Amino acid sequence: xxxxxxxxxxxxxxxxxxxxxxxxxxxxxxxxxxxxxxxxxxxxxxxxxxxxxxxxxxxxxxxxxxxxxxxxxxxxxxxxxxxxxxxxxxxxxxxxxxxxxxxxxxxxxxxxxxxxxxxxxxxxxxxxxxxxxxxxxxxxxxxxxxxxxxxxxxxxxxxxxxxxxxxxxxxxxxxxxxxxxxxxxxxxxxxxxxxxxxxxxxxxxxxxxxxxxxxxxxxxxxxxxxxxxxxxxxxxxxxxxxxxxxxxxxxxxxxxxxxxxxxxxxxxxxxxxxxxxxxxxxxxxxxxxxxxxxxxxxxxxxxxxxxxxxxxxxxxxxxxxxxxxxxxxxxxxxxxxxxxxxxxxxxxxxxxxxxxxxxxxxxxxxxxxxxxxxxxxxxxxxxxxxxxxxxxxxxxxxxxxxxxxx
Length: 406
Description:
Elements: H1 16-22, H2 71-78, H3 99-119, E1 123-125, E2 141-148, H4 156-162, E3 172-180, E4 186-189, E5 195-197, E6 203-205, H5 206-226, E7 232-236, H6 238-247, E8 251-253, E9 259-261, E10 266-268, E11 273-275, H7 277-285, H8 294-312, H9 315-319, H10 321-333, E12 335-338, H11 343-352, E13 358-361, E14 364-367, E15 370-376, H12 381-390
Parallel strand pairs: 1-12, 2-7, 4-13
Antiparallel strand pairs: 2-3, 3-4, 5-6, 7-12, 8-11, 9-10, 14-15
InterPro entries: LytR/CpsA/Psr_CW_biosynth (IPR050922), LytR_CpsA_psr (IPR004474)
Keywords: Membrane, Transmembrane, Transmembrane helix
Protein name: LytR family transcriptional regulator
């Protein structure tokens, strides 16, 4: 660099001012020269008098016009925002998931409690014969079903329609052995005019045993005649047939001819039809229209009983609480059972009454002593009796609607 002219006001070379402005070889700057500030990485304690950079304050924390910040504003800024107000919901009924199992539980309880209650309303009788002459225990279960003229539970209008007084049930025109087991279900009717041995010797019609000795003597005579051990006794009165059929809303019958029987209060046409309880009772009791009289009647009795069983299998029986109550009430009002029967046994009997079964009349012949009486056919009856005793399939030739040979 060219030397600057003297007296120009610029510092002269070699002076401290010159070295400070243009730099010089001196390593020690003068004491009053401006010095470079070291970086802030050094400890603050090494530079106690150093000017420091303060962090910038947040705009929200600064006070306006140089005033200190307002504490309330700072608290409001740091506090979380208030939760939005929720609208008050109106209560509306909703079907919750827990309600469905509760309703199902109550429904199942109703199905159980109703028959248990009506069980307490059923009359029980002693139907077990005494002595050691009874047949031994046999496989399967055998029920003796007896239809009596018990009418003390009929209404005044029903007794007037039947032209029958109130009575306790001392006569029977329906005797059926119902067998259930591995050999299938079989309903075998024993005609009321069948001759059996009398307790004091001689013979008598089997329905006379019921009239004179009740359930116990009738069970004894049936066992002596057939060799079949009776496990349970069920007696159905007039009222049970009428009221049970009406509770179901009627039952289907299929007469094979027009039937007009004033004694049974019956007047119906040929063909399948739905009938009420009074008509069903008359249909099962009529004996003066068809040629075989009692033998045809027992077949119609089984038809009515099977029809009631078919109605009982309808889902509507269990799904309709009112219908379910009426059926149980009607069935318990005019039924008698043996005193050894419990609710489970009665339930099994009700199930045995439903579904398909073989229907037979005891194989029979006209009695040699009286053509108006019958006896068990000595050639064909044992095959039917033994099939029930052994719980095997009943031979078809031994199972006919009237009990007569085909």
